[in-house]
Amino acid sequence: MIRVPAYINGIGLISPQQTADPSLFLPEVMEYTTDFLTSVDPNYKAFIDPLAARRMSRLIKMGITAAKIALQDATPKPHEGDFLPSLASGSEATREG
To answer: What is the pTM of this model?
Structure first.
């Protein structure tokens, strides 16, 4: 097995806080009193073609958008094929659906 070093140079996050814009760090902290949280969805049209987004589940749109945010945040800018987006265990809801 060949081992190649991997480095994290950018991060993309969609969460219950307003974290989709990496240039702003929590402009307004949102407070929740419920047990179930939902994410604050960014404008997906800025990251994904609207026609393609219509056929995607919400989780897939979130993953693609988070990966694109990470690529925009990365320094130095990666070359095509130089990145590997990853999810912990994949999209359970999409696989079951």
So the answer is: 0.71
CB-based contact 68:10 (threshold 8 Å): no
Structure tokens at 11: 């991060």
Query: Given CA atoms 41, 43, 49, 50 in this order, what sign does their dihedral have?
Result: positive
| Cα 53 to Cα 60: distance, rounded to the nearest angstrom | 9
What residue type is assigned to position 33 of the chain?
Answer: T
Answer whether 67's CB lies under 8 Å from 11's CB. no
Stretch 28-35: mean pLDDT, rounded?
86
Give CA–CA dist 92/37, Å, rounded: 18
Q: What is the CA radius of gyration of the chain?
A: 15
